[in-house]
Automatic annotation (TrEMBL), chain A:
Chief site of localization: membrane
GO MF annotation terms: ATP binding; ATP hydrolysis activity; ATPase-coupled intramembrane lipid transporter activity; magnesium ion binding
Name used for this protein in its record: Phospholipid-transporting ATPase
Annotated positions binding Mg(2+): D372, T374, D810, D814
From TrEMBL, chain B:
Species the sequence originates in: Carex littledalei
Pfam assignment, any one: CDC50
Name the UniProt record assigns to this protein: ALA-interacting subunit
InterPro entries recorded: CDC50/LEM3_fam
GO cellular component: endoplasmic reticulum; Golgi apparatus; plasma membrane
Entry's localization field: Membrane
Transmembrane segments: 43-65, 308-330
Family according to the record: Belongs to the CDC50/LEM3 family.
Keyword Nucleus applies: no
UniProt biased composition (Polar residues): 1-12
Taxonomic classification: Eukaryota, Viridiplantae, Streptophyta, Embryophyta, Tracheophyta
Amino acid sequence: MPLKYHSNYISTTKYNVITFLPKAIFEQFRRVANLYFLLAAILSLTPVAPLSAVSMIAPLAFVVGLSMAKEALEDWRRFIQDMKVNSRKVAVHKSEGLFGYTHWQKLRVGDLVKVEKDQFFPADLLLLSSSYEDGICYVETMNLDGETNLKVKRSLEVTLPLDEDEAFKDFRGIIRCEDPNSSLYSFVGNFEYQQQVYALDPNQILLRDSKLRNTQYIYGVVIFTGHDTKVMQNSTDSPSKRSRIEKKMDKIIYVLFSVLVLISLISSIGFAVNTKYYMPNWWFLEPKNTNDLYNPDKPALSGLFHLITALILYGYLIPISLYVSTEVVKVLQAMFINQDLHMYDEETGIPAQARTSNLNEELGQVHTILSDKTGTLTCNQMDFLKCSIAGVSYGVGSTEVEIAAAKHMSSESDFGTSEIEIEPSTPMTPVFERVRKSTIKGFNFEDDRLMNGSWTHEPNSGKILMFFRILALCHTAIPELNEETGVFTYEAESPDEGAFLVAAREFGFEFCKRTQSSVFVRERYSPADDLVEREFKVLNLLEFNSKRKRMSVIVRDESGQILLLCKGADSIIFERLSKTGRTFEGDTTRHLSEYGEAGLRTLALSYRVLEESEYLAWNAEFVKAKTSIGADRDVQLERVAELMEKELILVGATAVEDKLQRGVPQCIDKLAQAGLKLWVLTGDKMETAINIGYACSLLRQGMKQICLSAAPSDPTQPNAKQAVKENLSLQISNAIQMVKLERDPHAAFALIIDGKALTHTLQDDLKARFLELAVNCASVICCRVSPKQKALVTRLVKEGTGKTTLAVGDGANDVGMIQEADIGVGISGVEGMQAVMASDFAISQFRFLERLLVVHGHWCYKRVAQMICYFFYKNIAFGLTIFYFEAFTGFSGQSVYDDWYMLLFNVVLTSLPVISLGAFEQDVSSEVCLQFPALYQQGTKNLFFDWYRILGWMGNGLYSSLVLYFLSVSIFSSESAFRSDGQTADMAAVGTAMFTCIIWAVNIQIALTMSHFTWIQHLFVWGSIASWYLFLLAYGAGSPLISGNAFQILVEALGPTAVYWLSTLFIAVVCNLPYLAHISYQRACNPLDHHVIQEIKYYKKDLEDHDMWKRERSKARQETKIGFTARVEAKIRHLKCRLHKKIPSLTIQTVC
Amino acid sequence: MSSSLASVSTAEESGDTSPQQKQSKKPKYSRFTQQELPACKPLLTPGIVIGIFALIAVVFIPIGLASLSASESVVEVVDRYDADCVPSDMQGRELDFIQNSSTNKTCTRRLIIPKTMKSPVHIYYELDNFYQNHRRYVKSRSDKQLLNPSKEGETKICAPEGNTPDGKPIVPCGLIAWSLFNDTYTFSVNSKIIQVNKKNIAWASDRSHKFSKDVYPKNFQKGALIGGGKLNESIPLSEQEDLIVWMRTAALPTFRKLYGRIEEDLLANEEITVVIDNNYNTYSFGGKKKLVLSTASWIGGKNSFLGVAYLTVGGLCLSLALGFIILYLFKPRTLGDPSYLSWNRNPSASAD
């Protein structure tokens, strides 16, 4: 073969054995601070260093080693996952018609494989034949696009005979096709077989990672392998993500670096000047007898050396332990996330999992959530809940929206407030009980009027019978008998159809068999009756597509009557009703809007009785259209179908609940109240997506929907693409205009866009305006999007708005988006592990997202922000004192502190309190976080890590350093004795006293910063201070060869001295006075939300004044246009309006 | 959903009897992991704010007054003699004067005692512009050598004063010892010599643990360059208290070091005659030399800074406390007043 194809081996790891060390080390030293410390460590081996080498190298090795070990572990897990996939087995044609099993990774392009039922395809295959005679097979593409319905693939007719192992003995063919690409829905190529060339289309292509269903086996030829496959082409490299705060932290470190370089330059210039002009006079230094480090004859060289010394000495400005401490803190925070019982799912037994700890604080700053639909918001299960037959609505079950609205209306009459209480648990219970009651999957219908055959006593029983027959006949599903239970289950193209069939079965119309030409239904009108199996000949099937929005079957029943059964979107059906068929139109319309409001998916059902002659005439035309070849075949078919689907008689409508996962509407509601935007990206078709939008309250009645879709274009036209694009551009402009001109404050817009339109709008020239429109809409739903488009949309939001994005999904099709977003959340435990493997956080239910963001995110953001600010403060306060002292030593590079003090400062004496701040601080309790989602805005608005605050902390550090140094020096001035026995203070005494003040000052500072003291904080903060004295005692008691002038310093020199203790008290207080005054003033005049809530809690006002507490909680919610509450409020507005119309004398100001 | 629910409920039932793998994944409840540890949440209420500032003021002002009065009670006599002790014919050639070993360096000074100085009166010498804290200087000592007679060869870090030109180790080595201060003072009142006690001027720990009584000065000040004072080679280092005091390097370039103590009262208006051996060279770098007589109080020598600082901050806190009282009186805010919540203050912003 001329081309070298990829092997079928896949690898998703970041490193391999050889590249790990260089790549991981490179990653580590991309952190500027690490690079600096590496340099400092190297230089500390030379005599230039002011500090010992060990004290520079050890912490660095620790930090880098820890981080690299973490990376290695994460990559190892990915490797194991890959190995599992690579060593799956598949049957391959060996020779002479014999098939043998081999590992996936050994597959090559051109291999013939046989894939059996419920196996994954190992590579992209060309379907040759299947266990079905007509060469069809059913495929589940869950991992590719998230859809669980089955897709039918059809082989070429010419390869149909190749349906057994022996047939492949002498099989030869040539496939020519396009290069590997990422488009899942297109394929161009041809197949040369037996001297004939056949065109290939996506219908014959089986994609890797999709699953063979309902088909015993298929034969196929490998076309693309490994990383050439469509699914791998759709995967993007997993990027290493860093949080916004961490990126900003780097900037701060750059600032500190500049300061460091600046003061080092000042030092070295000062040193050079001193060395040149003054040192020759300093006979006590023997200036004539020096080396290059202090050579008065070469001041420039000495100055240069000194620059390096100074850079190392002032290194304390850059907190090396910041990285270690943040790593430790984040691991602790991740542990809290993992251990949170509120995010543990009892049903699946899976706790939440922070897969990377890098992004904890980012959780507190999320602005937009991009969510997958299937498996994330929904369980992908439809339940037949209600129906309207002949103008009567059946089904007593109620949806969550209805329950909440009812609850609210009753509570309003009691309290007179506009409080809507949706406790996470309360509305769940009825729903939950309902689920428990019904044990039939897909059927949640309760109404004694229809069940158990009692429908026969209803007035319109004839219509009801027709309704049930339409349910049982108008579909494309295949029945499957469950051998154990004897119950039929259905493999349907869509879960709605499945729900209809289950409903029909429960009503006594059991669809049991499908042949090429007939559908068999076992009917039983009442439990007492016998089963009657009836055969309906299917004459024609007019398929569903998103443009027609309807499907019909034409059947001949046993009596020979020809019926057209049609189900479809209500608008489509209603415009095709005959005059006589409109009897129930009014009632049905009313019911439909009620169902829609309740978040149900609705379809209208209708029929038409056909005359034999009428049918025959039409059928001739239909067959003609069907057999016509050419581009207009579809158009022809549609036109002919249109001729038949008219003059319909309306029977009724169905309402199916797309089963949302538990707590999803409440969670969306809370997230909306926290000010988060939610975009839904789904591979589903537009109708399904819209229905789900209703179900989870992203859409509601009265919302203005803006639908963007690509106008169908004539591909023959040369600039068809251009035309489509212009059309879209126009649509967007109009929509933007509409949004801008809207005056009603309650108006909300929803943007719905499909994948085809997205391909155009995501191009450079349109995407800015598309984004402008999208951010102005309350909810955005993208349907029919490919995995790549999901990632592209995510990137657009991320880069276009500059805000933090979070992507949540469960399937392999969400991997791209999960990786692209600032934070990727995987839903674990449903289907596959790809999404979880690519994610940063894994939760088992969508509803846990609320707690993950609003509680953990909020806390982690504040903790990390405060911690980093404090870190900079403390290191500036400490580091600058070293610099000031330099000015008094002729810039010689001498430190006033003992080496040991400096080493311990970051590692022991101040690290634990700051870790306890970072790990345990809580501004408000978790309950309050959940009750006041608005508090989350503090993170989104970045109130705690903006430059104003950072500079404030730095200023505080600068102030403290000045106070610490100059007050200490003035008090311990060597010009007068500091003790009653006349001793003067030497350098060790001054240094130790100053250091004591620093320890007190920074620890009191952190105590002032904290608002939540458990025994841990107390232990760490006060323990740090105590440990300093303990250290001094121990250090002073050791060998004087180690401690030098610090020998017995506390016991002998400082301890018995009043001035020492007075200076500590004084300086510690003065350092913290401005901060204390500032926060007191701020709280007095400008309290932040959490301050006020802390006070309410502190005085237990929430218990005394229940109404106020409730009122504030409801006000705290962002005025949202989406979500459950918004929807209930809209409904209330609506009801109030009606009320006003009835009682015009009542004047309440309400905007309707 | 419903079927999975059913299976879970059975799993739970069996889980009670036999712990399953599934159950082991459930995080164990503890107040720590659930972040529900009991905590105290102090709050800066107006009362506490005013209380803190008032308390600081109440504590600081008395301390300030006490320190100030202690500092005031200290009597201090300072006499700068570096310039006056150069004979008039050598003025302008101070370096020649101090470096010439044959010049007469004796110098007599008269001090008037302003107030009665109670015994003990501490005698200090004060140097200025002398960088005892220079890195080159600070590092130039060998603690091992001072402590252990067998380690006298450990002079590497003492360069350039580690070894004599012929290679013998210098004890004590290094620039610090080499530049030992060597002016001496003799005091007399009305021709009666006042005894100066030079014992116990160094830290006891230094004498007992850092300067060995078995180590004697050796080869000290024998090199080509003579630095400061010489040492009596028959006295062990532990008793060379002037050296021990000198070896405690000062933190700042202006410093005082204890020279000795006069253990008798000096009466007011007494004239004290000091005979100074002005040997030490501060002329090359323009450093002043001062002789200081001072009593000591509980805060040490005369240093009013601490008292003034305490009083200032105490006063500041008092005014802050008053300021906050006024603030709370004129701009009262009920704590926990919900109208201060952001969504109540700025409704349009929250509706954004």
